[in-house]
Specification:
By secondary structure, the chain is α+β, with helices and mostly antiparallel strands. About 45% of the residues lie in helices and about 15% in strands. It is built from eight helices and four strands, in the order E-H-H-E-H-H-H-H-H-E-E-H. It has a four-stranded mixed beta sheet with strand order 2-1-3-4. Helix 2 packs across helix 8 and helix 3 crosses helix 7. The two termini are about 30 Å apart. The C terminus is likely disordered.
Length: about 200
């Protein structure tokens, strides 16, 4: 792929996902590489899906723990920074989908936040995480996510939207680093998107 010209354009990316999404877990390495390599070109945020119906549980996982408290924890961490939210989401997925831990338990959520705080100095404030976890700001953020999902009729997890100047497109399912990079290039080079590609609000 040819190098992408920065052109001083920022692409807004919304990643509709949830901690227990097995497809998101499978593409985590590709997503991390993509967001790291193109960090200067993109503005990323999670839109958290609290309904388990959008994503099949991994086979053999047994009883699937509720992801609502885990989503609440991610949103609380995101009040600090998107980098902290990325690290925390990765840790949640590994804990739940690889290690079989129950991420509906408060002690597991706190333990993961503590590990990130210890291993990434200055990235996650553990005390602020505790304060924000059940704060009005966190609850409002989750409510806004739920409204955004309904308004934009997001019915599959994961879904990723790419938007520039109010125009864009969305992609669902698994995507490799190369595919994500190609979509970023498409977003940057599309000068007159069709009406069907108008991005969700």
């Amino acid at each position: 792929m040819k190098p992408i010209d920065l052109n001083h354009t920022i692409v807004n990316i919304v990643y509709y996902t949830q901690p227990l999404c097995p497809v998101s877990w499978r593409m985590q390495q590709h997503w991390d590489e993509f967001t790291t390599k193109f960090s200067e070109l993109i503005n990323v945020r999670f839109c958290l899906v609290t309904s388990d119906t959008m994503s099949r549980s991994p086979e053999g996982s047994g009883r699937e723990p509720s992801n609502i408290r885990a989503c609440q924890a991610v949103k609380a961490v995101s009040l600090q920074s998107q980098r902290a939210a990325n690290l925390y989401m990765n840790a949640l997925r590994k804990a739940a989908l690889a290690d079989g831990r129950d991420i509906s338990l408060s002690r597991v959520l706190v333990d993961l936040a503590r590990d990130i705080s210890r291993e990434n100095h200055g990235v996650l404030d553990l005390q602020k995480f505790g304060t924000d976890f059940d704060s009005p700001a966190t609850r409002r953020a989750l409510q806004k996510d739920a409204l955004k999902i309904r308004t934009n009729k997001i019915d599959s997890c994961p879904t990723i939207t790419f938007t520039v100047n109010g125009h864009g497109f969305k992609a669902t399912g698994f995507h490799s680093f190369q595919q994500l990079a190609a979509m970023l290039k498409r977003a940057l080079t599309s000068t007159s998107p069709s009406a069907s590609e108008r991005s969700p609000a």
